[in-house]
């Protein structure tokens, strides 16, 4: 029981500390990119488009968090 409460507190603290406003634009861009990637024909091309979305999201998040 104590482990569950402690785990819930850690998860809640993580969500509370997340910079939501800074990531809002990046997350919506990621969802749009996933939608475009889902329309790509071919398994490997779709997979590569999805990975490209992830890399773009990581770059966007890094720029937003560092203020670049």
Describe this structure in words.
This protein has 68 residues and is mostly helical. It has a domain at 20-66. The chain is built from three helices and no strands. Helix 2 (20-38) packs antiparallel against helix 3. It starts with a helix and ends with a helix.
Structure summary:
This protein has helices spanning 2-17, 20-38, 43-66. The termini are far apart.
Key structural traits:
68 residues, mainly alpha, 0% strand, flat
* DSSP helix fraction: over 70%
β-sheet strand percentage: under 5%
Report the span from N to C terminus.
44 Å
SSE string: HHH
Number of strands: 0
Count of discrete alpha- or pi-helical segments spanning 4 or more residues: 3
The global form is flat
Q: Supply the helix-strand structural class.
A: mainly alpha
Rg result: 16 Å
Describe the oligomeric state of these chains in a short phrase.
single chain
Unreliable runs: none
Mean pLDDT: 80
Chain-wise SSE layout:
Elements: H1 2-17, H2 20-38, H3 43-66
Helix pairs in contact: 2-3
